[in-house]
Amino acid sequence: MKTLIPTIATGLLSLLTFTSCSSVNSAHPLTKSSNTGDLESFDGAWTHGGMVFTVEIPKKAPATLAAATLAYENDKFEIIELKAITAKGQHGQYISVLQPKEKGDNETPDRYMISEYSFEREDTLLLWPMEMEAFAKAVEGGQLKGKVHENKENKFMPKAVTLSASGKEILEYLNKHGAQNHFDYKSPTILKRIPHSQGD
């Protein structure tokens, strides 16, 4: 499963974006929003990069999403599940995806990938990951708690950022400084909804 989990997470970062190779991650999700807004728009089946993800909205967990996909490994199917939390800020809507772990891994700390998201149409979801340089500056300048370190997982991104600030602090930072320079708008991840007639 060690090679499988990052692959699935890459696709789901696509859905809900992150892998162990991501250049920015957070110890905490952004604070849940009391305004769930377009949360129901996530509900259903989505596709990206040849993978299909089913997204549900747990009834007992407002502003939370549950997603799953199937993977075939060692002659059997494995269900990969992910959880995500949505938050609404002054400059955009955000989603924090909990990074999946190996089964039985109780030692690795929780890590979240935070993206800004927008529904372009009913059948199209756009996600923009955090911009590493912007958050590295925020950490090095003392505006956000965290650590800038060598990224051994990705030779194309020599630096990585791990935020230790609370979800509330990160959201307040984005509200104050704006999202424009803090997310990578050049290359969005694009997910397409599978119509019910095809997904049934």
TrEMBL record:
Signal peptide (UniProt feature, chain positions): 1-27
Keyword Signal: yes
PROSITE patterns noted in UniProt: PROKAR_LIPOPROTEIN (PS51257)
Keywords from the UniProt entry: Signal
UniProt-recorded name of the protein: Uncharacterized protein
